[in-house]
Fold each of these.
Amino acid sequence: MLDYKLYYWDLPFRGNFLQLLLEDVGANYKKFDASDVYPARGLTIKNPGMAPPYLYDCQGKTWYAQMPAILMHLGRKYDYLPKRAETLTLALKTILDANDVLMEITNYNGSMMWQKSTWEEFRCGRLADWMQIFEKTGNDHGLKGGAGFLLGARISVADIAVAALFGTMVHSFPTLRGDLQEHAPNIAILCQRIEARPAILHFLDRQREESGRGYCGGQIEGSLRKMIEG
């Protein structure tokens, strides 16, 4: 019997935040296309969300929506949450920060397409600042080179979120790898370490063979590629 059904598009973007953890813990799950739920069934499920990803817990017969909430739920279930109150709060903050970065890099979920001037301002300003925020968080908790994790000596949902955010970003847009290495060198190494975990590595190899450098799809990704690669 399946543990979970995950509903998302055939793209990494927000889906990888959940899939990296599900893969790392060896959960028995199956991924379904988001159109099986969204938008037609979106308001008919219990605990609806505005848009994918959605997770259905087959054993608990419960729906979960909104990526940060789903990741925190999985983190609690599989003991990927920090024990101390402060670091638990920081884990949630990290996931929410990552979600904000996704919103910002897509120019507020595609509300406008990027122009060269606004993209360069974002890349050199807020994106660089975000990278430094993650870097300082890790440094403050002992992350250095190939040792430690974002919030201490033990892996948590925060590390999964960092790898899903920046690991995916620099794979999809290799030009940004230099930005990450400049502004967040320890985070860059952390992403490589998380992506090298056996189950995650196997998943990413398969995903990247199938999807290439796909990111978020559609006009939004096209706008980003025009800015970064054009």
Note: The domain at 4-77 is CATH 3.40.30.10 (Glutaredoxin).
Amino acid sequence: MLLANKNAVIYGAGGAIGGAVAHAFSREGAKLFLAGRTLSKIEAVAREIAASGGTAEPAEVDALDESAVEEHAGDVAIKAGHIDILFNAIGMDDVQGPALLDMPAEDFLRPVIKGARTQFLTARAIGRLMVKQASGVLMTVTAGPAREATANIGGFGSACDAIEGLWRGLAAELGPRGVRVICLRSAGSPDTPDVQEVFRLHAKNAGVPLDEYIAGAGSNTLLGRLPVLAEVADVATVMASDRTRAMTGSFINVTCGSRVD
């Protein structure tokens, strides 16, 4: 198994991406420590993993709370002995649909501030532990708007830019200390509730039915479709494994070819 004897911390594990990655990591042998704001959602994922024969410990952690993040990371390190993987799938509470000129400042800034703060706090807490053992992988996920001009997405694109800038800095500083830093870029998975809601807003703005909008969003990719959750999770699993130990500072295109690097 790709992740045998690995301990993985997943923030935002109660969401669609975090949950999918948790299941994929577990299938490949990782022991999981799941964290998120809503304990019931985290516990549900942990029960599913346990029912499949995996090991997952849930914890309620507000990733905006510096003390809570540090305490949780320390507790996991004591229990597990070492932390090998961080996967960050924390939502940013972004508002999409309205034009920037019509958007309140608070709605624009919320995802930028939340994205930057939560990603920094979690990566710093786990990164500090990883440099002590001179090994580990820090991984997060952003989206296409980090590299392209996209209308009606509010502060989401700026938040992705901020996260990718942080990840570049971490890669530069932690690479010499044995820690790899990876960012997945997704085009949005149509089988997730959040993406469906975003597509619904954009379909309304475009004046087309939702099914037509989703089909059109995938038609521009080289594969003629968008990536589903399981595919994103599979790529995350490979990137977290020792099979990619020569890769760091890498932004992985998981978009079915919506863009070419």
Note: The chain has eight helices and seven strands.
